[in-house]
């Protein structure tokens, strides 16, 4: 008999697979910078001005700036669209404090309330306030020229606020830095929402910088435009034909009227 051989069972090992951990990266969101209206504001303090307030590195300048900034944030921080506030400097006249309030929306009633609260807070903690807080918005939009201007024709500049300035109480127009007094061919027409400057027979002498300031009961709104030579165009010369035959039906020596019609703003010149 042949000996019996017993085979040991074979064990097969499955390969081990190592899984790499999955990392999820959140997308990066870039926030666009917020843009708004910069209102240039001023308050006058009944306090002696010193030369150190001209130096931003002096202790007196820093202390007054910090105290004013604290009150400004407290009183203006609650208005709709508030972005921030900053003290820009001090100047002589007792002490004029100049600051800028940046906001995405201008609400005249809210600013009126904040101005009153700020004046009371300054009076009780720093110094009495002389008069009221003033606010000015210098618009980036130019004065609008109404229509095409031809030399010798009418020119109209329109000043229309893009923010709520409250009730407009008065308007001031300047030309090349001098106040316009409405002499002769210049006329200023005001309403509750805008002001229009009209110049009859505009010419190259009317080119230059124009500025309009609307004084509201809470805010002032200012617009400018530099009217240049290209804004006042020379009138076009249109010749339909060199010669136009005219048939005379009258007798010799009789006067015959000739007519030539054009549309505005063109004019007829006989020669």
**In terms of structural class, how would the helical and strand content be classed?**
alpha+beta
Tell me the fraction of residues in β-strands, as a range.
25-35%
CATH architecture of the largest domain: 2-Layer Sandwich
Overall 3D form: elongated
By CATH, the topology of the largest domain is Alpha-Beta Plaits
Q: What is the typical, i.e. mean, pLDDT?
A: 84
Q: Low-confidence runs (pLDDT<50, min 5 residues)?
A: 1-34
Describe the strand arrangement of the main beta sheet, using strand numbers.
2-3-1-4-13-12-8-9
* CATH class label of the largest domain: Alpha Beta
Protein name: Adhesion G protein-coupled receptor F5-like
Organism: Gymnodraco acuticeps
Region (Disordered): 1-35
Domain Ig-like: 128-228
Would you write up a description of this structure?
This protein is of the alpha+beta class. The protein has two domains: 37-138, SEA domain (Alpha-Beta Plaits), CATH 3.30.70; 143-233, Immunoglobulins (Immunoglobulin-like, Sandwich). 13% of the residues lie in helices and 32% in strands. It is built from two helices and 14 strands. The strands form three sheets. An eight-stranded mixed sheet has the order 2-3-1-4-13-12-8-9, with helices on one face. A four-stranded antiparallel sheet has the order 5-7-11-10, with no helix packed on it. The protein has a two-stranded parallel sheet with strand order 6-14. Strand 12 and strand 13 form a beta hairpin. Helix 1 (59-76) crosses helix 2 (108-125). The model is unreliable at 1-34 (pLDDT under 50). This is Adhesion G protein-coupled receptor F5-like.
């Amino acid at each position: 008999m042949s000996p019996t051989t017993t085979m040991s069972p074979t064990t097969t090992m499955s390969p081990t697979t190592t899984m790499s951990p999955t990392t999820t990266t959140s997308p990066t969101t870039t926030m666009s910078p917020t843009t708004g209206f910069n209102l240039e504001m001023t308050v006058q303090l009944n306090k002696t001005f010193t030369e150190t307030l001209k130096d931003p590195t002096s202790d007196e300048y820093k202390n007054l700036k910090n105290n004013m900034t604290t009150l400004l944030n407290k009183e203006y921080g609650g208005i709709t669209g508030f972005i921030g506030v900053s003290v820009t400097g001090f100047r002589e006249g007792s002490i004029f404090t100049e600051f800028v309030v940046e906001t995405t929306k201008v609400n005249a009633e809210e600013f009126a309330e904040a101005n009153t609260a700020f004046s009371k807070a300054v009076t009780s903690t720093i110094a009495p306030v002389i008069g009221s807080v003033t606010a000015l918005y210098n618009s980036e939009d130019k004065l609008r020229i109404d229509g095409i201007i031809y030399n010798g024709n009418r020119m109209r500049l329109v000043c229309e606020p893009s923010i709520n300035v409250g009730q407009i109480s008065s308007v001031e127009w300047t030309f090349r830095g001098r106040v316009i007094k409405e002499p002769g061919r210049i006329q200023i027409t005001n309403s509750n929402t805008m002001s229009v400057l009209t110049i009859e027979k505009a010419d190259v002498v009317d080119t230059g910088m124009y500025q309009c300031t609307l004084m509201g009961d809470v805010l002032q709104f200012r617009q400018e435009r530099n009217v240049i030579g290209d804004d006042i165009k020379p009138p076009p010369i249109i010749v339909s034909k060199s010669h136009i035959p005219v048939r005379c039906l009258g007798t010799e020596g009789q006067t015959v009227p000739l007519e030539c019609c054009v549309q505005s703003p063109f004019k007829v010149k006989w020669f």
